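Module 6 notes. Inverse folding takes a fixed backbone as the condition and produces residue identities as the prediction. Think of it as a translation problem where the source language is geometry and the target language is the twenty amino acids. Below is one complete input and output pair. Work through it position by position during the lab.
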């Protein structure tokens, strides 16, 4: 079991974790704990290089800081990535070793579910540390609440951009039909939206085609669709130099983290293209709200739902402020987060 700390400007703590016996290679990054302990999921992914894994960990950790601050939670931001193949290396030995590394942070980092990890993984981690949420005895799958928050963000964006109070006939392109994408399609279907979808896993896209009448398209065609809303629900950095010029949507609001490859550059380009972008950390905060309310505050799922519903009002309020100050929604949200981190405002 080896730990190597490295200094990254702007981050409080970054550790490289290695356990040869468990074949574990992980990175745990803590971005900011000004408002509370850093909460952030554990992502299991076969990164091509350590540099790619590090970049993902750092981007995701910062995103969690902004997400928890914007949602007014007494939490900071962190993230963990495990460099491994989820099909062959997802086992108890690996996650118990990871749990021992989490324990070395003495509570300033709380881990949770993320890409390719689930409640069983959290149960294994919990055998080594109490600083974990989302186990089988915890708050359950956060994906449903994440999807609901994205749904509320879409409703608010449609109100702001299109002047509509309902989603009937609104065309939504959903990229990625994992847990969040599935539940989002379900809510959109129940509110009579027209859904276009794609996923690299045929079984996942076929499921929503059968259940919700989603129109299936090739994965690389999702950006070119003439829709009202584009909802990225897969991996990050999907809005970049290559994809942005292809976009035919009016609104972007989705469940993926770090949707903009370069926040400053691509945020400005979306504004130039007259695309209404709801910052990902605003739209997809439902999952962390659910975990915080149920597992840390020990309140009910109804309380978590009430706060998640408020994502609608958050988007409306951000729109009002950015209209008055001639800023983008992203600039407005970033300014609020920075103020909260600076002054500890709740």
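Target side of the pair, the amino acids:
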């Amino acid at each position: 079991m080896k730990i190597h700390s490295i200094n990254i400007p702007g981050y409080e703590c970054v550790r490289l974790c290695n356990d040869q016996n468990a074949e574990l290679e992980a990175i745990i990054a803590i971005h900011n704990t000004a408002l509370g302990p850093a909460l952030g999921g554990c992502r299991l992914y076969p990164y091509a290089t350590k540099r790619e894994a590090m970049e993902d960990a750092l981007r995701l950790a910062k995103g969690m800081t902004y997400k928890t601050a914007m949602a007014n939670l007494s939490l900071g931001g962190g993230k963990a990535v495990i460099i491994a193949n989820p099909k062959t290396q997802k086992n108890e030995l690996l996650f118990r070793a990871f749990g021992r590394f989490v324990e070395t942070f003495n509570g300033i980092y709380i881990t949770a579910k993320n890409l390719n990890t689930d409640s069983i993984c959290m149960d294994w981690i919990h055998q080594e540390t109490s600083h974990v949420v989302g186990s089988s005895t915890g708050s359950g799958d956060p994906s449903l609440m994440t999807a609901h928050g994205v749904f509320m963000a879409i409703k608010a964006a449609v109100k702001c951009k299109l002047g509509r109070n309902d989603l009937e006939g609104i065309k939504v392109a959903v990229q990625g039909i994992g847990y969040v994408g599935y539940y989002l399609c379900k809510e959109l279907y129940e509110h009579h939206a027209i859904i276009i979808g794609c996923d690299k896993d045929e079984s996942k896209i076929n499921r929503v085609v059968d259940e919700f009448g989603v129109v299936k398209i090739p994965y690389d065609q999702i950006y070119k669709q003439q829709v009202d809303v584009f909802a990225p629900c897969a991996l990050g950095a999907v809005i970049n130099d290559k994809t942005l010029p292809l976009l035919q949507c009016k609104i972007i609001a989705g469940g993926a983290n770090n949707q903009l490859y370069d926040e400053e550059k691509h945020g400005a380009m979306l504004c130039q293209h007259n695309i209404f972008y709801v910052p990902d950390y605003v739209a997809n905060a439902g999952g962390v709200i659910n975990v915080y309310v149920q597992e840390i505050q020990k309140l009910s799922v109804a309380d978590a739902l009430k706060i998640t519903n408020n994502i609608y009002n958050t988007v409306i309020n951000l729109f009002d402020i950015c209209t008055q100050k001639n800023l983008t929604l992203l600039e407005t949200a970033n300014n609020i987060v920075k103020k909260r981190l600076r002054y500890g405002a709740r």
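Reference fact for the lab report: The domain at 2-126 is CATH 3.40.50.10860 (Rossmann fold).
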